[in-house]
Design goal:
33% of the residues lie in helices and 21% in strands. It is an alpha/beta fold. Helix 8 packs parallel to helix 9. The two termini are 13 Å apart. 40% of the residues are buried.
Length: 270
């Protein structure tokens, strides 16, 4: 096919955060897709453990200044950028003082799950889509990685469905092993509804655990990638019930950029 615009949205990415399967795939796959003569963009959270000076992050003033409203609170979105010269890639970081300026990622110094991880997830998902709108860059494929991106397929099917920049986008969601045992809380679905999203669309997220987030994303995505050989059995069963309705790329131990590229092409021609 002709040159594609592929947007990668990930909760983690090497070398900025190291040690996870999500971060490694988010580092290698975009480069491989770009090297096939495609145009890419990458969006990740700017967690406080990411050293701005060492990684040479700097603010993109023209993209900053958006407020993300959650529970009637306006939360300013700051956009920063860094380059990976060896890969000839730029990475956009979504930042907010209240949500991300802490020296831990998902848990505190005592390994307790942050009680505001629900709002951090909502902020990142909506912030990512608002950033793409402000860029004015219309992706053909939006590929989401990690549980913190799980609301993006829902938002693209509801409150952003009429946005011109996303009108022709196909959404791919990569499913990994369960990455936390806690729960995002009983108010997660209510907060996530933002502009009064239909409760039926949110129902699959009920429960707020990692499996629920995955199943919610899978339900609203156009296609699914099994990115782990240790996916929760409940999630595996859920994927199986949808396999006749949407494409599923089976787990591969190695990257296989050609397979991903063909998978994207098949979505755009179906």
């Amino acid at each position: 096919m002709s040159r594609k615009k592929v947007l990668f949205i990930s909760s983690e990415m090497n070398p900025f955060l190291e040690g996870s399967t999500v971060g490694e795939i988010a580092r290698q796959l975009p480069q491989a897709i770009q090297e096939k003569d495609n145009e890419i963009r990458i969006l990740v959270p700017r967690f406080g453990v990411i050293n701005e000076r060492r990684n040479r992050l700097h603010e993109v003033v023209r993209l900053s200044g958006i407020n993300i409203t959650i529970d009637d609170n306006d939360n300013p979105l700051i956009i920063k950028v860094a380059s990976l010269p060896e890969a000839k890639m730029q990475v956009y970081f979504l930042d907010n003082e209240d949500y991300f300026h802490r020296k831990f990622v998902y848990t505190d110094a005592n390994n307790a799950f942050f009680p505001d991880n629900d709002e951090r997830t909502i902020f990142f998902c909506k912030g990512a889509l608002e950033t793409v709108k402000k860029l004015g860059w219309a992706p053909d494929i939006i590929h989401c990685h990690g549980w913190m991106t799980s609301l993006i397929p829902l938002y693209l099917r509801s409150m952003y469905k009429d946005e011109p920049v996303f009108r022709n986008s196909k959404v791919v969601y990569s499913v990994f092993e369960n990455q936390f045992d806690e729960n995002l809380g009983k108010d997660f679905a209510r907060k996530a509804s933002l502009n009064n999203i239909d409760q039926e669309q949110l129902a699959v997220f009920d429960g707020g655990d990692c499996s629920n987030l995955y199943m919610g994303a899978i339900h609203h995505a156009d296609a699914v990638v099994k990115a782990s050989d240790q996916i929760d059995p409940e999630v595996e069963e859920f994927i199986a019930t949808l396999s006749t309705d949407k494409p599923v790329l089976q787990y591969m131990a190695d990257g296989h950029a050609d397979v991903y590229a063909d998978f994207y092409d098949s979505l755009l021609t179906s």
